[in-house]
Amino acid sequence: MFLRRFVSILVLVCCFVSLAAAQNGGKKVEIVKPGEYKAPAMNASSELKKLVDDTAKEVMAEFRALKGTEFAITIIDLRDGKKFNWAEYRGEEKIYPASVVKMFFMAALERQLEDKKVTMTTELERGLKDMIVDSSNEATQYILDVLTDTASGAEMPQKDFEEWQYKRNRVNRWFSSMGYTNINVNQKTFCEDAYGIEQQSRAYKGQNRNMITTNATARLMAEIVTGNLNTPERTARMMNLMKRDPFAKTTDADSQAVGFTGKVLLDRKITDAKLWSKAGWTSRARHDVAYIETADGLKFVIAIYTENHSNEKNIIPTIAGKVIDVMRK
What count of other Cβ atoms lies within 10 Å of the Cβ of residue 73? Predict the structure, then answer.
């Protein structure tokens, strides 16, 4: 009788110890915003709002098949170092981001590396580079596993799945803690489709797919550019991964350097411009977020998402070109 009670108490103690260890472990791996972090001051600009609205009207007139509900634009002017002057067209619409989500995973990983909650290895460095430079889906799957301590596999019973899904939402919690809203960044990217627990995580019919707004996308790029998310060294690392050269020789007409915003720089021979970007492209979506600097002083972020026109390569550069023309006046 005594032995039976002793065993029961021992099991109970072990359960409490395991639970405490799990909770402490969770704190150790949770992605945490820097202690000195302050959300950027966002200043709604009437001039930029007119530019965005006029551009939306002009691009619909130029591309007759493009509907007003099939694209979104956000611009952030970074020439004022103290605040983000910005404007948007449908900037709070949640849209499937395709590979643009990889920029969000990159930012989260660099935060974990800086906080020493993840250790850089040769393989992790290769995965990070391939995710951003080559936009590899396989590399992205690996990076998200590292960030969230989850892995693909068979479907799980509900209780086990809820624990798994909580960990998978780690990146979401980080962005939420910094004031990002209306986004979901907890899913892997695939060349074909998700299976098993990954499909279970999507709620089978896609209700829990990645969804991001152009406002959040532009803000993240601007926060990387201005060094608001991390140290100068890690900011430089992220910027280096997103650096594009539209004038470099390539046989890939859909590369991130020449197939999206960079196309306007190439077509107009704006050789003095500098470009950093992250594009996304599927059978339905064609997106880009870019930071552009020009020799005459322009410094701005532009996020453009388009739906149902993925093979129309000129919408994004046309929008960017109109923005450049007006901002240069």
Answer: 27
Q: pLDDT tens across 64-122, in order?
A: 999 999 999 999 999 998 889 999 999 999 999 999 999 999 999 999 999 999 999 99
Q: Closest Cα to residue 104, out of 162, 188, 29?
A: 188
Each residue's pLDDT tens digit, 134-172: 999 999 999 999 999 999 999 999 999 999 999 999 999
Provide the CB-side half-sphere exposure for 229 (13 A, CA): 31
CA dist 298 and 254 (Å) reads: 25
CA distance 73 to 218: 9
Cα–Cα distance between 258 and 248 in angstroms, integer?
A: 9
Phi and psi torsions of 278, nearest 5°? -145, 115
Most distant CA pair in the chain, distance = 89
Structure tokens at 28: 């150790």
The reply to whether the predicted model has a pTM over 0.70 is yes
d(CA 293, CA 1): 78
What's the CA gap between 322 and 192, in Å, rounded?
Answer: 35
Q: Cα-flanking dihedrals φ and ψ of residue 164, to 5°? A: -60, -45
